[in-house]
Design goal:
This protein is an alpha/beta fold. The chain has an eight-stranded parallel beta sheet with strand order 1-2-3-4-5-6-7-8. Helix 6 links the parallel strand 5 and strand 6. Helix 2 runs parallel beside helix 3, helix 2 packs parallel to helix 10 and helix 3 crosses helix 4. The radius of gyration is 16 Å and the shape is globular.
Length: 202
């Protein structure tokens, strides 16, 4: 999963950058645009939905995701409660939840989430309130708390070099921001991460 960040995009067209990432084997895009107006966020999300063949998620805003025709939304603990949203979105609408501690894991285990995003796995400059890095061992401990059948992904400081460690620790995939968006060639950067995971025996 590649997560958008307007700061790292540095004025580049998000559709063009995300298209390049998908060509480099990114399999999902999350629209994280913290300071956008609702109208601008709908516009960006809809443009990505129309342009790309992979699922598009919207960070924090399930209402925006539905309006844009996106595949789902990723929620934090300060957003509209996931359990309250579930009956009010389409049956196939994906709802993910952020997990960064044992307390959050215990709360998330009671929710009808489609996946957990656990992190930060490693130190990251992309989210200033992310908290201390978990590392592979603490990631694994949290991943084991997910309900059976609920996939977990790793986020935070993910690179081609360390992504295999998080797969070893129980993740089905990884979410990246800087490793792709800060790269001069987002397609090549995404491909390098994909190759690292493909070559990994897990």
């Amino acid at each position: 999963m590649v997560i958008t960040d307007p700061v790292l995009l540095k004025g580049r067209d998000p559709v063009a950058v995300c298209r390049a990432a998908v060509q480099g084997v990114a399999t999902m895009i999350q629209v994280r645009w913290k300071d956008a107006t609702p109208a601008d966020l709908v516009e960006v999300a809809r443009a990505l939905v129309d342009a790309l063949p992979v699922p598009i998620l919207v960070n924090d805003r399930a209402d925006i995701a539905v309006a844009a025709g996106a595949a789902g939304a990723h929620l934090g603990w300060d957003d509209v409660p996931l359990a309250s949203l579930r009956p009010n979105v389409p049956a196939d609408f994906l709802l993910g939840i952020s997990v960064g501690s044992a307390d959050e894991a215990s709360r998330a285990a009671l929710l009808p989430a489609d996946y957990w995003s656990i992190g930060p796995c490693f130190a990251t400059p992309s989210k200033h309130d992310a908290g201390p890095a978990l590392g592979p061992e603490r990631f694994a401990a949290l991943a084991r708390l997910a309900p059976e059948g609920t996939p977990v992904i790793g986020i935070g400081g993910i690179t081609a070099a360390n992504a295999p460690q998080i797969i070893d620790a129980g993740a089905v995939g990884v979410a990246v921001i800087g490793a792709v968006l800060s790269a001069p060639d987002p397609e090549a950067a995404a491909r390098v991460i994909g190759v690292a995971l493909d070559r990994h025996p897990a």
